[in-house]
Design a protein that fits this description.
The protein has 529 residues and is of the alpha/beta class. The protein has 4 domains: 125 residues, 3-Layer(aba) Sandwich (Rossmann fold), CATH 3.40.50; 79 residues, no CATH class; 42 residues; 208 residues, Rossmann fold (3-Layer(aba) Sandwich). The chain is 39% helix and 21% strand. The chain contains 17 helices and 18 strands. Helix 15 links the parallel strand 15 and strand 16. Helix 9 runs antiparallel to helix 10. The longest helix has 36 residues. The protein starts with a strand and ends with a helix. The relative contact order is 0.10. The mean pLDDT is 88.
Length: 529
């Protein structure tokens, strides 16, 4: 259990949290959510003690151990993989090293023996004899090969370092577990393993994640940051989203009824207050009127962009035919080979699997940005394509260009009013529309690219990891926009829920060709379990 009591935090003149009181109890996994900039990661740092609040305190019962998913992938480069995991339980690791030091002393004496005896007792209490075995099990679970577990951290790939740090946080059955974006850079197999681990974890977990499927799978409660406060809701992310929308709608409907009743009573009082025979009724209605309350509905600080892709014209039956396609890079690396497929009108194809380079390269070949080594790409003559690249930096290398000017490049209507309307849809209202494009954040650039695609009116859309840099609200809006799109689509995304709810066809690029299945993502995963 961990509690925050009266937490207030100010950064300069900016208030981030005000008098936050919340208790996180054993046996629950809490999803900490909120719009970008509301302080999700900051609140985890307050709980861990990394940041001191301006006011208030964090209370952890005596003897309870807190573990945090570390973000610095280079902090343990001089340690072995196995030692890095065991360091997740700092006291246990200190005892192990002190024992090694004492046992190796050439002038071991009686005082050393007494200290060693005490250390051995504590070591046994902390389940130290099983430490290496437990660490190995965690490393195997997250997908770090056994042969690398005695290597130094500096000698393993960055993708494996992420997994080692995750195993470190989970090691030793911590009483409180703080996880900030634990699924980032993890493959689907490791994410599923982590979901199962957390579902069976009996202590307290607080997690920040943009992965809605993950939040739905593991969370028993949602802690929602809004207006500098944190409110707890029972259930997972989808339950919170549906119930919050329902509660807002009910409050609006209740207010409408109250407003109608107020109007009716006011009209009655106005008509009959001067009428002697009706004056008592008018007085009675006035008392009733005074008792009616209009609930103050604070609009959430969350902002959902409006994403709606509409083709200017319907495509014919011939969409795309790919024949014997292969691509070898200029340095001789074979990226993919023997790719063959045809698209049907209305197909929404998700490219899945671990080979991100192959997916990105294929999309560039389909868009004519790269020339295939062999094979042919044939688009139907009625098709028009719009492409979202995973790296969009070249679109924004524009000196002294504001957002209105930037979007004007891609619009047939160049009026400022029209363009500002589109930017407003994508949460660039007022002065925001005059921002210089070269200073945009990653998420802002993505929203600009989505506006460009909507303006294109294309009947075939290609997305390469469009959810990168987006917050949950924008991901939800994009998910809805992609689901509602009436054209044909090719895409890749690490967002499990988006893939499963949008795709009706799954393709995976393998070393010798392509797996092509007409099914949902969940069905595909079950097929490959």
């Amino acid at each position: 259990m961990i509690s925050a009591v009266g937490i207030t935090l100010r950064f300069g003149g900016r208030l981030l949290f005000e008098d936050v009181n919340i208790k996180f109890t054993d046996g629950n996994c809490y999803g900490l959510i909120g719009a970008n900039g509301t302080g999700k990661s900051t609140f985890l740092k307050i709980l861990s003690g990394e940041i001191e609040p301006s006011k208030g305190e964090v209370i952890i019962p005596e003897g309870k151990r807190l573990a945090v998913l570390k973000q610095d992938h280079f902090a343990y480069d001089d340690y072995t993989v196995l030692d890095t995991v065991i360091m997740g339980h700092q006291r246990l690791y200190e005892i192990m090293k002190k024992k090694e030091e004492l046992y190796s002393k050439p002038d071991f004496n009686d005082d050393d023996g007494i200290i060693l005896s005490e250390l051995e007792g504590e070591f046994a209490e902390l389940n130290g004899w099983d430490a290496e075995t437990d660490a190995e099990k965690l490393l195997n679970g997250v997908g770090v090969p056994t042969e690398l577990q005695h290597s130094n951290m500096k000698d393993i790939e960055a993708s494996l370092k992420v997994k080692v740090l995750l195993a470190q946080a989970l090691f030793g059955n911590p009483d409180i577990l703080l996880l900030d974006e634990p699924t980032n850079h993890l493959d689907i197999k490791t994410v599923k393993w982590l979901e199962e681990f957390l579902v069976n974890f009996e202590n307290t977990v607080i997690v920040v994640s943009h992965d809605r499927h993950f939040l739905n799978a593991v969370c028993t409660q949602i802690a929602d940051i809004d207006y500098n406060k944190i409110q707890l809701y029972a259930g997972n992310y989808d339950f919170w989203y549906e119930s919050s929308q329902l509660a807002l709608q009910q409050a609006k409907e209740a207010n409408k009824k109250a407003e109608a009743k107020i109007k009716e009573l006011q009209e009655f009082i106005q008509r009959f207050s001067a009428n002697a025979s009706k004056s008592k009724q008018a007085t009675s209605r006035k008392k009733w009127l005074d008792k009616i309350e209009i609930t103050e509905i604070k609009p959430s600080s969350r902002k959902y962009p409006y994403i709606d892709f509409k083709p200017d014209r319907e495509a014919g039956d011939q969409i795309l035919t790919v024949t014997n396609l292969s691509y070898t890079s200029p340095d001789g690396e074979e990226i993919f080979k023997n790719i063959n497929f045809s698209l049907n009108k209305g197909d929404k194809v998700a490219f899945v699997g671990t080979n991100g380079k192959a997916k990105t390269t294929l999309f560039k070949v389909l868009m004519g940005e790269l020339t295939p080594t062999t094979g042919e790409v044939k688009w139907g003559i009625t098709t028009t394509q719009s492409y979202f690249p995973t790296d969009n930096s070249e679109y924004f290398n524009k000196d002294n260009m504001d957002l209105v000017e930037w979007l004007r490049q891609y619009s047939t209507d160049d009026s400022a009013t029209f363009l500002r309307g589109w930017l407003g849809r994508m949460l660039f209202s007022g002065e925001e529309a005059l921002k210089q494009v070269k200073v945009l954040s990653g998420g802002e650039k993505v929203r600009c690219m989505l506006a460009k695609m909507m303006l294109s009116g294309a009947n075939v859309l290609i997305f390469d990891e469009p959810t990168n840099h987006l917050d949950l609200e924008s991901i939800t809006a994009l998910n809805n926009g992609m689901s509602n799109y009436k054209g044909t689509m090719l895409f890749t995304s690490h967002d499990h829920q988006l893939v499963d709810t949008v795709a009706n066809r799954i393709m995976e690029i393998k070393e010798d060709g392509l797996i092509d299945k007409q099914m949902t993502y969940e069905e595909y995963l079950e097929l490959n379990d």
